Each structure stands twice: as structure tokens, then as C-alpha cells.
Fold each of these.
Amino acid sequence: MKKSLFIVIVLTISFGVFAQTNTNKEGSNYTFTTVKEIETTPVQNQNRTGTCWSFSTLSFIESEMIRKGKEAPNLSEMFIVRHTYLEKADKYVRMHGNLNFGAGGAFHDVTEMVKKYGIVPESVYAGKNYGEDEHKHGELDAILKGMLDAVIANKNKKLTPVWKEAYEAVLDVYLGEFPKEFTYEGKKYTPKSYVEQIGFNADDFVEISSFSHHPFYSNFMLEVPDNWLSGNVYNVPLADMAKILDNSINEGYGVAWASDVSEKGFSFRDGLAIIPENNWEGMNKEEREKYFIDPVKQMVITQELRQEGFDNYETQDDHGMHITGIVKDQNDTRYYIVKNSWGDGNHCGGFLYASEAYVLYKTTCIMVHKDAIPKDIRKKLKL
């Protein structure tokens, strides 16, 4: 069987299974009707790593390739992660350690790394050179930070000229050496020429947020610890962010979604992310569980509520996911279909349903194609 035909069959099966799912979990009374759904590649598993930003952004890019009529690729998350480890290390040392150094990142990390270094298929660079079938970075992350802290301590009163070589050698051991050239489906590529092959232009994508501590229709550096690249987002009123989200999905584009998932209402196991009108506080476990079985009225989200949550650290930049559609429950409440990167071990096959209220309240930023932004908003942003 040709690879291209196999990929189409896999995608059809993966897409079809989720399309038939009309509830969040067994025994639930939620019934969802699809409004719009975008084709995606199969769910992946970041496992025990903090690399959701790479998985979600590449899933978003893979759907973009499908939208453009390209053969659906399976892109290497660890190729991007490896490059960010190198660039982050250099910045961490130059900042004398006064920078968040960890596995976390942002959507623009991916687009910036693709622009600078290219991309490769997963089959070319899996990044699992340490004898495991799944990604596990606990040991690697601790070793890398320990090395850098030792460099910054500067006990020789002068940084050695080889610390970067030593650091990169650790990455080679754990993740594997970078492929400078590779053969894929009978053709030779470099990481940069493969970007041309899949037709990806990183400049087509922008990040959007909505916070009132910066002027609307301007851009600003999003103040979250994992924004080590100091990337900017475009700032719009909440109503406009909602319009951008919906227009992107309805026009067939996906949305990369950065959000707080530490809320009581976020449950991958239950396939739901909800913000009930009634406060969670004071509820016992049994009362909370009922909200994941029976549909409830969602909280009305305002600009002020969003801002308060962000200002008080209640809304943090925890996790990156990929929004791939819109559904409605039997009460006409809207939800976004969300593709996660925690494997397929829930009733929705690795997806979940996030209520419109949850998304509007807990989004730190989204990444969208510029063409998916409504023209009147795009004009105000001077895009």
C-alpha cells in the first residue's frame, strides 16, 4: 500500500471516530451536535514532558497543510524542542540565570525555529535516544539546568569557550544529532527545503490576546514566564477575540490555544472544560462530578473578569492545545472541540469539549492564520 493512501486512511479513521462521538464520557447526559469540524492528524502524546507548545503548534500546522490540499505530514516536535533548548540556554546564560529556564514555551517558538532552522518529519527525528518508547524529559531537564547554573556560577572567573559544546553533547546523547540532510519518500531534503516542500510560511501566523492592561489594537509582550523569546501578541477586545476564534474555525482554519488547565472545570478524563455559573467553591466532590454528567449553565465572561483572573495569577499559561471545531449541547450552549497531546486515553479519543465561556475566560493567547481574522479587525491591527 502506498504511504500516501495509508495516511489518508488513518486520517479518515481518526477523524471519523471523533466525528461520531456525541458525548464527553460514558454515562454522561451531554449531547453534542457538530457545528463545524476541521480535519486533523492523529492525536500524539507529549507524555512526561513540558513540550505541549510544540505538539499543539505542529498539530495546528499539520491541519494547515491539509487545508491547503497537501499530504498530511507528521512533523517532529523534538526537532523544534531541541533547537529551543539551544537558544534558551544561550539567553539564560547571558541573562545570568534571570530567565525562566524549563521545558515550557510558546507558539511563536515553533514558527521562529521553523524560520531559522526548518523542520523534519517525525520519522526522521523522533528525539527519543534514551531507550524509551515515550517522551520522558525529567532527567534531561534537570541535567541541562544544572549545567547552565554551573556555567553561570563562573567559578573559574571566566566562562570557558566550550560550555556550549558540552551542553549540545548532552542533547545529542538524549535526543539524537540533528539531521543536516535526509531522504523522505524517495526524495532528499534539508530541514529548510522540507519547509518549502510542505508549503509552510511562518509569517502567515500571528498570536492574539485580550487584556485591558495594554491598549487594544496594539501589540505587546505577553507577560507569562514561558515567553522566554519575549514574543509579542496582538491585543483586541474580548468580543473581537471571540470573532477571530469563530471566523477561523468556520472558514476552515484551526486555532492554536494557550490556556490555564489548572481549573476545577478542566478535566481531560471527563472530556470537558467548563465554567459553571455557580462557583465551584463550597461544592463537595459528588456535586462537582455531577457537572461533568449533566449540562449546566455557563458563567458570563466579561473583559473585567478575564483581566482580574490574569492579574491575580488565577489564569496562567499552563498548556497549549489545538482547537479544531465547534459543537453545541442540547441546551444550545457552545463548545470548542479541542485536540490535546496527552494521548488518546479518554472517551473522546484524546479530544475534549471546552465551553465557550471557559475558552473566553482562560485563554492566555491564540495563534491563527492572518487570513482567518475578519477584515475589519485585521484593518485595525494593520495586518
Amino acid sequence: MNPRYLTSVSELDNLVGLSPKERNDMEKVTEVFPFRANEYYLSLIDWKVSHDPLRRIVVPDIKELARGGCADPSHEKDFTKQPGLQHKYNQTGLLLLTDVCGGICRFCFRKRLFMSCKRETVRDVSDNIEYIREHKEITNVLLTGGDPLTLSTSQLEPVLKELREIEHVNIIRIGSKMLAYNPYRIINDPELLSVLSRYSTPAKRIYFMAHFNHPRELTPVSVQAAEALRNAGVVVVHQTPLLAGINDNSQTLTTLFRKLSFAGISPYYVFQCRPTTGNAAFAVPVEQSYDYIQRSWQACSGLAKRARFVMSHATGKIEVVGKTASHIFMRYHQAADPGSIGKFMVFKSNPLARWFDDYNHPLTDFEPKKLWLF
């Protein structure tokens, strides 16, 4: 099965049937933020439920046109060393291989790639490979975009080959939502599995950074595809943002974390939704997100609750590690300035805060103040 892709509201209307208002609203949204999905993923949506979480993940919503946010909330431009390559953390290089995804998540933090005429990805990665070769502090490389698995295997294989030939690159990561959007991309391509097996070795593994936002995305075929990756020697781990109307309750998160652990997929990160343009409707207050995660873990084994809850801020990955009735506690899990790694911070509680900056620059008359910075 190779599911057909849809990129227009009219195609979606022909497939599932939209009301005139739904179609009109969606067309307004797609004038700003493009739409892309496929028949496999759309078949998972309960179209009788207007607030179905999977529908919310991929189908345009008029609320996306609300003001606020910015195109690059994590300031990726500041860490772009040359087109298609970012180097923010000493040990990690990012290669943006494509500006195409298996589906366009409505909450994407890098949606500027789909909107701008200015390309941030490159088709010829030779200069970027050379940068990685020259920077011996880079021990792991993340292939991202866009989704690298939208490339053909013949396009992906040379990148993996060249990276694996660099002695100091020990880990190659592939950031992808294809296990959710189109697991047939993996199951139906034995050459892909052969290539991954060739370059994921016992001493130097390939990691597949799977992206499931809701437990219903973990279908039998997606679990089968994850097993195929593991049989090829690839380590499969998981990450998701916490999203309003999709997974912002402890029951959904519990089910997601448990299903992942049962399938042998290790939870890695839960992200706070970034304040990207068009993402306001998906943002959950930081402290509320933390509470959802903590409550969800009450019904999870240790293997199901290994994820860290972080904000991918311009200054680094800031982990939320605890809270009381009056304070919230954070630390730098990773940082652009290596000297900040492990730095611990305490803030007065701000139930309205949706991002790290809100604790310094409040959105209301309430003024939370930083108490200590060690």
C-alpha cells in the first residue's frame, strides 16, 4: 500500500465531505499555512467528531490565524552555520535534508520551511558533511527537515554512508513522524531497511526519533514498522509536544506512554509547544503541562516514564523538574553555552506562562520574579 497524498482542501472535501463553512475556513488557513496529509492517516480520523485529536493534528483550523508567536521561536537562524546545517550544541550537528513531510502538523515549530521562498534545506549536503568532518566535537548528527523519509532511499543512503565514514560521528539520528503518518514507507521498502542495517552497527547505532502525539497513531501497522526498524538494528525512541485538544490530559498521556513502552519504543522527550506563529491554539500553560505528565506517570512503569519534559528554548533545552504551590523548578538539560548545562533555576509560579520567557516577561499585571539562579 502506498497511500495517496492530498495537498488541497478541495481534495480533502472530495474524500471526506466538508460543510461549506469548514471548507471556507480551511481555505483561508491554507492561504497562509499549507496542508498535506495522506489517505492512510486521514482514515484514522473519526470524521463524526469535530474535535477528534487526530483531525486536530493534521487538518487546518481557523484558530491557526490568531495573532502571536514568531517564525523561529528557538532562534535556529543564530545556530545555522551554512544552509541546511545547524550546530547549537557542541556534540550535535543538524542536517536539514528536506522541506517536505509525510504530513504537515498544524503545530509544527518549523513551518516556515513550508511557507518561505527562502530555502533552509539543501539538496547537495557535501559542504555540510565537510563541516561535520572538520568539527571533531560532533559525535552525533540529527537528520531532519522536513522528514528525511520523504526522500527516496537512493537519496538517503549516500548521506548515511558519508556520515558513517566520519570516525567521530558515533550516532546518526533520523527525526521522523513517518511511523505515524505513513508506516508503509518503511514496511514496503526492503532496500531502506537493508541500508539502515548496513549503517547501524553494534558500536555506532542509528536512532529513529519517532513522533507519536496520540495513542491512536500507534496502529498495528505502525508497531510493525517500528519492529522492522529494530530488526534492522535501529534504536527507536519517542518524542512529542504536549498539545491542547490532542494529548493535554493525563489519561491520554498514560495510554500513549504505556503503549510505547509495551511496543519497546522508549519515551525520550515531551516538549512544551513552541510559540511559533499559528500555534497559540495548541499551547498549554507550562505548569499545567507538568501536572498532566506527573499524573499520567502514576499509572506507568519506570520504563514508560523515562521522558524529560523540556522547552527547546533559544538558550538550550530547559527541563521542568518540579513545582510547588508557589514555585517552579527548572534546569538546563542542554545549553548553547556549555557552561550553563545543569544550571538550576527557581521561579515564582505563573499559571499563565506558556514559555520560558513568560517567567521573565509576564503577559499580565502579575509579575513573577526569578528568585535564585545557581
